[in-house]
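Standup notes
- DV: blocked on the single-chain target, sequence here:
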Amino acid sequence: MTNNFTDNAKEVIMNATNEAERLKSSFIDVGHLVLGMLRIKSCSANQIISKYVDDLSSFKDTIEKIIKTNDTISSTPNSGNIPLSDDYANVMKLATLE
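- DV (later): unblocked, structure below
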């Protein structure tokens, strides 16, 4: 699925998976994707968020709290070890159409 993505996008996806593992999440969700973007300083999303968020550390903490709260929603099986949330799977499908 990631063959159509740029190297930065592939890195974000890998980072999202790493974030899910780090947080011991039962699935990969959109919040993990946001955290994955924030790991890459050159990522456009990171630059936009940094422009509007005064305390990036607090922002990340808030995202992590949301992830932990939402860790019970439905998920879609993934070829990796951690399943994808339905929202994450939809984001990935839409991204492949772009």
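- Follow-up: Residues 52 and 78 are 33 Å apart (CA to CA).
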